[in-house]
């Protein structure tokens, strides 16, 4: 399976590694997209901009993501495009990587779901 739905991700917060591949300003909520009703990031997510991720070697990626290759990880961005690239790259490096296609655009619309700034 290469994708994860919002319901599963919400239910597994705290037990699954999450990588937010948006820019640092999107991640911290200071420069989010105006179409999103809330700004910030999914709790527990680590921020590694997808363009930075592409420049790292496997050992650096392991350190940036914070988990060992082979581990389960979910990537997300604003609308699922950048995270699709990141998930594919992480899978090629041996991670059990999945893409959250709805990404922040979907998550930000659910007031019942937590966020961090």
Adjacency order of strands in the biggest sheet: 2-1-3-4
Number of strands: 4
Uncertain regions spanning at least 5 consecutive residues? none
Strand content: 5-15%
Overall form: globular
- The averaged pLDDT comes out at 95
Helix content: 25-40%
CATH architecture of the domain at 6-80: 3-Layer(aba) Sandwich
Supply Rg: 13 Å
H-E order: HEHEHHEHEH
Number of helices: 6
Kindly name the structural category: alpha/beta
In CATH, the homologous superfamily of the domain at 6-80 goes by the name Rhodanese-like domain
Just give the CATH class of the domain at 6-80. Alpha Beta
As for the CATH topology of the domain at 6-80, it is: Oxidized Rhodanese, domain 1
How far apart the termini lie comes to 30 Å
| Largest beta-sheet details | 4 strands, parallel
């Amino acid at each position: 399976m290469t994708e994860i739905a919002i319901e599963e991700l919400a239910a597994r917060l705290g037990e699954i590694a999450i990588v937010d591949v948006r820019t640092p300003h999107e991640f911290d909520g200071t420069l989010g997209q105006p179409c999103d009703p809330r700004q910030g990031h999914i709790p527990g997510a680590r921020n590694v901009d997808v363009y930075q991720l592409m420049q790292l070697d496997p050992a650096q990626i392991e350190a940036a993501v914070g988990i060992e290759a082979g581990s389960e990880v979910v990537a997300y961005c604003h609308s699922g495009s950048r995270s699709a690239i990141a998930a594919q790259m992480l899978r090629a490096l041996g991670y059990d990587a999945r893409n959250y296609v709805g990404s922040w655009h979907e998550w930000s619309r659910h007031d019942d779901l937590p966020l961090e700034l």
